[in-house]
Design brief:
CATH class: Alpha Beta
Shape: globular
Strand content: 15-25%
CATH topology: Rossmann fold
Radius of gyration: 18 Å
Helix content: 25-40%
Oligomer: single chain
């Protein structure tokens, strides 16, 4: 796959990617991806999987990010589900609590902190689908340099037994710049939800970039699900992710005392969330 020269993305496969799997004391496997022969500690990214658990799609994304010069950790957050095949197919669902997720992500950061190839002081976190919420809650409770969500995190705002805090209250605590990428035809997250997200971030002076992709359904980044995949939106999304990481994980990133707001949307004048459907 190639990209325009204006994109920060490299062509896939230029760099040999090494992998290493670590199992934490809780039993959670974490696979690390990093460029072969890295001569220095690299900015680090925690990349979380969709609701289907740790599958090929997550590994593919991790390799692409490692090719950009990052040490990428992919935790198997739902390792405790006994029937992994059912999880991967969508027949089973994991429903961890927010505190459980924070504990597991603390383990991931601890692993990165002990790896010579990783600079955990320059840390980005990416949540996709169900794990989009996890990037936000972790960024509210711990230090991140970049918090990224792809079509997730804001479908359920209310408190519950699993989610002790209302999402608006969590967002108020977010310390890292936020990138949110959403789809116009997503059947799980409405444009009203995205606008609500924007409003909460602005009301609390949080830096963000939010983009709504035209005619993109839920899961449009996942090229292992042909019904959902949208190539143009997926390539644009990876451009956005890499650019945001470079902006916020570099040695010169950040302007002290400045709050940056960027909102980009392209939607049909007759948009109707109720007509959005699920694709496979």
């Amino acid at each position: 796959m190639s990209f325009q020269t204006t994109s920060p993305l490299k062509d896939s496969g230029i760099v040999q990617i090494e992998t290493k799997t670590v199992t934490t004391n809780s039993g959670m496997p974490i696979t690390l991806y990093f460029p072969d022969g890295a001569g220095q500690a690299l900015p680090s990214v925690v990349l979380m999987h969709e609701r289907y658990g740790l599958v090929q799609h997550t590994g593919d994304l991790a390799r692409r990010l490692a090719d950009e010069g990052y040490c990428v950790a992919t935790p198997d957050l739902f390792f405790y589900i006994s029937d992994q095949n059912a999880l991967h197919s969508g027949a089973a669902k994991a429903t961890p609590t927010d505190p459980y997720v924070i504990d597991r992500l603390d383990e991931v950061v601890a692993v990165l902190s002990g790896e010579p190839v990783a600079d955990s002081g320059k840390l980005g976190m990416i949540g996709v689908c169900q794990t989009g919420r996890y990037s936000i809650i972790y960024g509210a409770k711990r230090k991140l340099n970049a918090c990224i969500v792809l079509y997730g995190g804001i479908s359920d705002w209310d408190q519950s037994e699993l989610r002790p805090e209302h999402m608006a209250d969590v967002l108020k605590q977010l310390g890292a710049p936020f990138l949110g990428l959403y789809g116009e035809t997503d059947h799980t997250i409405s444009i009203a939800d995205v606008v609500k997200l924007r409003n909460v971030l602005e009301e609390n002076d949080k830096s963000y970039r939010i983009k709504i992709f035209e005619d993109a359904p839920h899961g449009w980044l996942n090229n292992t699900m042909p019904g959902r995949y949208r190539r143009v939106a997926a390539e644009s999304a990876m451009y956005e992710v890499v650019r945001f990481l470079k902006q916020n994980l570099s040695a010169t990133s950040g302007r002290s005392g400045r709050v940056n707001w960027e909102f980009e949307s392209n939607k049909d004048v007759n948009y109707d969330f109720g007509k959005n459907v699920r694709f496979e």
